[in-house]
Write a structure and sequence with these properties.
Blueprint (H helix, E strand, L loop, with lengths): L13 E7 L7 E9 L3 E11 L2 E5 L2 E3 L5 E3 L6 H23 L5 H14 L12 H4 L2
Antiparallel strand pairs: 1-2, 2-3, 3-4, 5-6
Length: 136
């Protein structure tokens, strides 16, 4: 196996998509999907409000004994710190966007669905042919 130079972690691009979780009874504040260097996607990261503040929880899976184990994890403290910084920065940006009145796409879809329920459906023109059109 050839030895590769490890990249400078600060130069690795991390894109995070944050979905805030609005449940005041939960310590989970958001769910996050990240793409690292346009090569790897990680879904199911959680932002958790712990005793010492916010932290990221990596995705986990439950085994047949009901125990949880990590699906993936950063290899070093430095990699974890870089990932945490990118995720929490994106979370802060999402909160600021909300406070400025700009809804997330998910919120906009939800709002549109609610508005659609309130409005009556338009009358369908199907099956309402005039008598003379039916004779043709």
């Amino acid at each position: 196996m050839s030895e590769m130079n490890s990249p400078n972690l600060e130069s690795v691009r991390i894109d995070a998509k944050v979905t805030p979780y609005d449940n005041p009874d939960s310590k989970t504040k958001a769910f996050v999907s990240v793409t690292i260097a346009d090569m790897v996607a990680i879904n199911g990261i959680r932002i958790v409000d712990g005793v010492n503040g916010l932290f990221i929880g990596m995705p986990q899976a439950k085994n047949s004994k009901g125990e949880y184990h990590p699906v993936c994890a950063p290899f070093s403290k430095e990699a974890y710190a870089r990932l945490s910084y990118a995720v929490l920065e994106a979370y802060q940006a999402a909160l600021e966007q909300r406070s400025q009145g700009r809804d997330s796409v998910a919120d906009q879809i939800r709002q549109g669905q609610e508005e659609a329920k309130e409005k009556p459906a338009p009358a369908s023109s199907r099956g309402s042919k005039k008598k003379d059109e039916a004779a043709i």
